[in-house]
Amino acid sequence: MMTLGCPKNRVDSEVMLGTLKQRGYSLVQDPAAAEVIVVNTCAFIGPAKQESVDSILEMAELKKTGACSTLVVTGCLSQRYGAELAKEMPEVDHFLGTSAYAQIGDLLAAEASPRQVIPDPDYIHNAQTPRENSMPSYTAYLKISEGCDNACAFCIIPTLRGGQRSRTIEDVVSEARKLADSGVQELNLVAQDLTAYGHDLPGRPKLHDLLRELVKVDVKWIRLHYAYPRVFTDELIELMATEKKIARYLDMPLQHASDKLLLSMKRGRDSKFLKELLTKLRARVPGLVMRTSMIVGLPGETEEDFELLKEFVKEQRFERLGVFQYSDEEGTAAYDYADKVPKQTIERRWREVMAIQKRINREQNKKLVGQRIEVLVEGPSEESEHLLVGRHEGQAPEIDGQVYINDGLAYPGEFVTLEITEAHDYDLVGKVVERPNPKDRVLKPRESFPLPVAAAPRQAS
C-alpha cells in the first residue's frame, strides 16, 4: 500500500487495509513481494500529480520484476483522470475513485471486475467500517467529515471529493473510543474543512459540540487540523482555552493577507477579520501554537500584494508556516484568471517568505532553551540509533519539527518531561528530567506494522 498526499488520504488507505485484512490479505513490507499493490494518489497540485504518476510507473515495474499480479490505483488522480489514465496505463488493472476505496475487497474478489470504478464522490466510512491504523500505536488520524462546500478559486478538492458529508457525533466518538482502546493517546482530527463540521447534519451540530463529547474519551491530546477561518465560534475558542485534552495547537490555512487576493481566491473573509480572529485566539488561548499555509503566485498577485503578505507573516509570527507555490489547475476558477505570474517570480516569492519564517522559527525555538516541556516519545531517530525522537504539544506528526532526546531513556508512546538544551531552525534537542515509572506501563497488543507511506514532501514548518 503506497499512500501519497494528505492525512485524509492516509485514512482512506487505512480503511482499504482493514477491508483487505478481513478478506484474508496480509500486508508485506517489501513491494517486490506483494501480489497486490495499491497506489493511493494525490492530485491537489501539479507536483503532487507528477509524484503520483511516477509512483504508479515505479510500482508497475514490479509486475515484470516482482510478485505483483494486480496493480490498483485509487484516490484523487483516479477520480480526476480515470478515463485518460486507463488509456495511457495499460499496466494498471483497476482505477478506483475517491468514494470507491471501501469497495476494494469486492473488486479484488470478483472474477470479472470493471477496470474503472469511479462513482460520484458521495461516500464516507463510519465507525463500523474496518480500518487498520497505519500510524505508530499511540497516534491516529480521525476523519470527521469528507468533502467541502467551499469554492476557493485555486482548489480542485470539491470536484474530486464532493460536497461536505459530516459523520454524526455518536459515530465519531465510537471510532475515537476504539482507537483509544487500542492504545492511541493522540487523536488528530482531519477534514477538508474542520470548522464546517455538522452544518449538513440534522440539528446542525458544531465542532465544539463534537469536541465536548470527544474530550470524554481516554486520550491525552486532541489536535485540530484544517480549520477554515470563515466560521470560528466563541464556544470553540473557549473550549480550546479551558479543556486540557485539546492541544494548544491550531492548523488554520489563511492563504493570503491582501484583500484583493482574498477576494479573488473566494475565501469569504477579509484581512481585518483574519487579524482580529488571530488576536482573539492568541489572547484567549495562552501558549497557542498556530500553523497556517499561504499561497504565492495566484494570478493577479502584484508585488504590492506580496509585500502585504510578507508584512503579515512578520507581524503574526506564526509558529508553523507552509507556503505553496500556486499551481494552475484546470477546472478551478483561478485557471481562467488573467495576469498569470511567471514561474520564476512565484519561486522567488516562495523563497522570500520561507526565509522570513525560518528566522522566526529559529528565534522562537531559542526561547525554549532551558525550559521544561512535556514530550510524546516516538522512538529511535532515523538519523541515529543513539538518539530518541519525540514531539511536544505544539508539533503535529509528519509535518512539523521534532524534539531529539540525547540524554535519558524512554519508551515509544510514553510522555516524558524534557529540559531543552539546544534549538535549531525547526527542531529542538533535550534531556529527560522526568518520566513515568516503567513498571506502570500498560502494554497493548498490536498485530500490524506501520504501513510504508510515501508522503508528499514535508512543508517546511
UniProtKB/TrEMBL annotation:
<keyword id="KW-0689">Ribosomal protein</keyword>
<feature type="region of interest" description="Disordered">
    <location>
        <begin position="439"/>
        <end position="461"/>
    </location>
</feature>
<comment type="function">
    <text>Catalyzes the methylthiolation of N6-(dimethylallyl)adenosine (i(6)A), leading to the formation of 2-methylthio-N6-(dimethylallyl)adenosine (ms(2)i(6)A) at position 37 in tRNAs that read codons beginning with uridine.</text>
</comment>
<keyword id="KW-0808">Transferase</keyword>
<comment type="similarity">
    <text>Belongs to the methylthiotransferase family. RimO subfamily.</text>
</comment>
<dbReference type="InterPro" id="IPR023404">
    <property type="entry name" value="rSAM_horseshoe"/>
</dbReference>
<keyword id="KW-0963">Cytoplasm</keyword>
<keyword id="KW-0479">Metal-binding</keyword>
<dbReference type="Pfam" id="PF04055">
    <property type="entry name" value="Radical_SAM"/>
</dbReference>
<feature type="domain" description="TRAM">
    <location>
        <begin position="366"/>
        <end position="434"/>
    </location>
</feature>
<dbReference type="Pfam" id="PF00919">
    <property type="entry name" value="UPF0004"/>
</dbReference>
<feature type="binding site">
    <location>
        <position position="42"/>
    </location>
    <ligand>
        <name>[4Fe-4S] cluster 1</name>
    </ligand>
</feature>
<feature type="binding site">
    <location>
        <position position="155"/>
    </location>
    <ligand>
        <name>[4Fe-4S] cluster 2</name>
    </ligand>
</feature>
<feature type="domain" description="MTTase N-terminal">
    <location>
        <begin position="1"/>
        <end position="113"/>
    </location>
</feature>
<keyword id="KW-0687">Ribonucleoprotein</keyword>
<feature type="binding site">
    <location>
        <position position="152"/>
    </location>
    <ligand>
        <name>[4Fe-4S] cluster 2</name>
    </ligand>
</feature>
<dbReference type="InterPro" id="IPR005839">
    <property type="entry name" value="Methylthiotransferase"/>
</dbReference>
<feature type="domain" description="Radical SAM core">
    <location>
        <begin position="134"/>
        <end position="363"/>
    </location>
</feature>
<keyword id="KW-0408">Iron</keyword>
<protein>
    <recommendedName>
        <fullName>Ribosomal protein uS12 methylthiotransferase RimO</fullName>
        <ecNumber>2.8.4.4</ecNumber>
    </recommendedName>
</protein>
<dbReference type="GO" id="GO:0006400">
    <property type="term" value="P:tRNA modification"/>
</dbReference>
<keyword id="KW-0411">Iron-sulfur</keyword>
<dbReference type="InterPro" id="IPR038135">
    <property type="entry name" value="Methylthiotransferase_N_sf"/>
</dbReference>
<feature type="binding site">
    <location>
        <position position="6"/>
    </location>
    <ligand>
        <name>[4Fe-4S] cluster 1</name>
    </ligand>
</feature>
<dbReference type="InterPro" id="IPR058240">
    <property type="entry name" value="rSAM_sf"/>
</dbReference>
<feature type="binding site">
    <location>
        <position position="76"/>
    </location>
    <ligand>
        <name>[4Fe-4S] cluster 1</name>
    </ligand>
</feature>
<dbReference type="GO" id="GO:0005840">
    <property type="term" value="C:ribosome"/>
</dbReference>
<dbReference type="InterPro" id="IPR013848">
    <property type="entry name" value="Methylthiotransferase_N"/>
</dbReference>
<keyword id="KW-0949">S-adenosyl-L-methionine</keyword>
<keyword id="KW-0004">4Fe-4S</keyword>
<dbReference type="InterPro" id="IPR002792">
    <property type="entry name" value="TRAM_dom"/>
</dbReference>
<comment type="function">
    <text>Catalyzes the methylthiolation of an aspartic acid residue of ribosomal protein uS12.</text>
</comment>
<dbReference type="InterPro" id="IPR012340">
    <property type="entry name" value="NA-bd_OB-fold"/>
</dbReference>
<dbReference type="InterPro" id="IPR006638">
    <property type="entry name" value="Elp3/MiaA/NifB-like_rSAM"/>
</dbReference>
<dbReference type="InterPro" id="IPR020612">
    <property type="entry name" value="Methylthiotransferase_CS"/>
</dbReference>
<dbReference type="GO" id="GO:0035599">
    <property type="term" value="F:aspartic acid methylthiotransferase activity"/>
</dbReference>
<dbReference type="GO" id="GO:0046872">
    <property type="term" value="F:metal ion binding"/>
</dbReference>
<dbReference type="GO" id="GO:0051539">
    <property type="term" value="F:4 iron, 4 sulfur cluster binding"/>
</dbReference>
<dbReference type="GO" id="GO:0005829">
    <property type="term" value="C:cytosol"/>
</dbReference>
<dbReference type="InterPro" id="IPR005840">
    <property type="entry name" value="Ribosomal_uS12_MeSTrfase_RimO"/>
</dbReference>
<dbReference type="InterPro" id="IPR007197">
    <property type="entry name" value="rSAM"/>
</dbReference>
<feature type="binding site">
    <location>
        <position position="148"/>
    </location>
    <ligand>
        <name>[4Fe-4S] cluster 2</name>
    </ligand>
</feature>
